[in-house]
Design a protein that fits this description.
By secondary structure, this protein is of the alpha+beta class. Helices cover 49% and strands 16% of the residues.
Length: 169
């Protein structure tokens, strides 16, 4: 039998269709999983902290110790892979930065909620007598990127967040 006379066996057509459908499903699953899950950053905490701190105005802040982190945010720094806090040096300031590297994914909501609670409570403190500080707190950013969280209240929080994102890559 020569090649011109050979016919395609129609009985195997469903097999090819099944393979195409399976390949399409696997491709969709891969694309969705690649883009829907937050990736953990492998960046060293000390590097991320140094780069973020370099973009943050350090003129009117103090470095927070474990006790201050517990007092202001209600979280225990010893439970995390890394924590950096810069908080206002006076009661009249609202410039603040908290950077946290999670030890476990389950900690994310606790830290996120603590950051939001801090921003909200500071707004209430300054309402009525320090509108410039309230305005700064209105611009405050909380950014969650995989295993890192950042809260920054400053004149230019976007610059700090941009540096944060670069440092994680």
């Amino acid at each position: 039998m020569n090649a011109k006379n050979e016919k395609f066996d129609i009985s195997i057509a469903p097999v090819f269709t099944g393979i195409k459908v399976l390949a399409l499903i696997l491709m969709i699953v891969f694309v969705v999983s690649e883009f829907s899950f937050e990736k953990e950053s492998k960046a060293a905490f000390s590097d991320v902290s140094a780069k973020v701190s370099a973009k943050f105005n350090m003129d009117n802040v103090l470095t927070g110790d474990n006790q201050m982190i517990k007092r202001l945010y209600g979280i225990d720094p010893n439970e995390y892979a890394g924590v950096t806090l810069y908080y206002p040096s006076t009661n009249m300031g609202s410039e603040e930065l908290l950077l946290v590297k999670l030890s476990d994914e389950s900690q994310k909501e606790t830290v996120r909620d603590a950051m939001q609670k801090r921003v909200d409570s500071q707004k209430k403190v300054f309402e009525g007598y320090a509108p410039d500080q309230v305005a700064m707190l209105e611009k405050a950013k909380i950014d969650v990127e995989g295993n890192y969280l950042l809260m920054v209240s400053s004149e230019n929080p976007d610059e700090v967040v941009n540096e944060f994102l670069k440092a994680l890559k």
